[in-house]
Amino acid sequence: QVQLAESGGGLVQAGGSLRLSCAASGRPFSSYANYAMGWFRQAPGKEREFVARISRSGGSTDYADSVKGRFTISRDNASRDNAKNTVYLQMNSLKPEDTAVYYCAAAAYWYEALNDQYTYWGQGTQVTVSA
């Protein structure tokens, strides 16, 4: 079983920045310890939407058009000394419309992430951007 724990949400003024983190843990280190990771968000009254994704190696990334150029996804991979792999979402130039609960998700393979077929989900962290 894999656990995902998000952190870093909060209240920020428009134009400001936040950095979200999501740590995936629960399995011993192995070549399968690193997951393809994604960030999604859900605003009140709206459906959950894709924000960004990153491959297991970190070599491939993908973003929603609404956040391109403002958000950056990155990761620290698991090692023998640290079985957690952590993904980050650096959010700059935040806008009020970025207000939402942000969720991270993990998939075993990149092709699953590309098709939004994530197996594990975090509990979410609230991001509120004031005008």
Q: What features would you describe in this structure?
A:
- A hairpin with a 6-residue loop joins strand 5 (49-54) and strand 6 (61-63).
- With 131 residues, the chain is mainly β.
- 4% of the residues lie in helices and 47% in strands.
- The model has no long low-confidence stretch (mean pLDDT 89).
- The protein is globular, with a radius of gyration of 14 Å.
- The chain has one helix at 110-114, and strands spanning 3-7, 10-13, 18-25, 36-42, 49-54, 61-63, 71-76, 85-91, 100-107, 120-121, 125-130.
- The chain contains 1 helix and 11 strands, in the order E-E-E-E-E-E-E-E-E-H-E-E.
- The termini are far apart.
Question: Which helices and strands occur, and which strands form pairs?
Answer:
Blueprint lengths: L2 E5 L2 E4 L4 E8 L10 E7 L6 E6 L6 E3 L7 E6 L8 E7 L8 E8 L2 H5 L5 E2 L3 E6 L1
Parallel strand pairs: 2-11
Antiparallel strand pairs: 1-3, 3-8, 4-5, 4-9, 5-6, 7-8, 9-10, 9-11
| Helix/strand order | EEEEEEEEEHEE
Tally of DSSP β-strands? 11
Please report the distance between the alpha carbons of the first and last residues: 40 Å
Level of helix content?
under 10%
Count of alpha/pi helices: 1
Unreliable stretches (pLDDT < 50, length at least 5) are: none
What assembly state would you assign to the polypeptide chains in this entry? single chain
The biggest sheet amounts to:
7 strands, mixed
Give the overall average pLDDT: 89
Radius of gyration: 14 Å
- By secondary-structure content and strand pairing, the structural class works out as mainly beta
How much of the residues is beta strand, in percent? Answer: over 45%
Broad shape = globular
